[in-house]
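Hi Y.,

Following your request, here is the sequence exactly as I used it, all 185 residues.
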Amino acid sequence: MFINIEGPDLSGKTIIAKELAIRLKGQYYHEPTFTSEKADKLNQPGINPWIREYYFLKDRMKNQSRYSIPNTSIVLDRYILSGLAYARVFSPQVLEMISSIYSLSDFKQPDVVFYIKTDLSFNYKMSQLRGEVIDLKQIEKLQNAFYDSFEFLRIKNIPFFIVNNDEDKLEKTIDVIQHHLIEIS
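Below is the corresponding structure, written out as tokens. Let me know if you'd prefer a different format.
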């Protein structure tokens, strides 16, 4: 299966995706596939959003083949839903273009998407643990943008589940995801 784990920054999705890949004896990948340095250059204020999205999409297209390994579960940390949600918040003018590209038949669609839901206090605690400063209003905007982007999954008939990630309940969260995977298999 091609499994996509989504959620805003500091929702725990990376830890969940890595652990799920281990449990499934699958492959873990992180998107976007840019190095942090390159992504940071593309996310500078003032950069043309069309240029930024072109490079993100080009990079994603380049890696499509690795999401089709026979007899292997692929667990991907961020993908289409993140692209749509972040575009809604940071560059809504390119949203239609991105949606069109993600809808192309040769753009690999996930078999299932899990959105990791947290409350803002969880994201804040995670930021403190990592020594990062986050804007909780921005995280809230991103959460709403993810919810708005679920419509894309509905249109594409991609099953998706919203899974709560409560503090200190990582095992339970992964168990819930595995239960949903059994349901749809």
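Residues 5 and 114 are 5 Å apart (CA to CA).

Thanks again,
Q.
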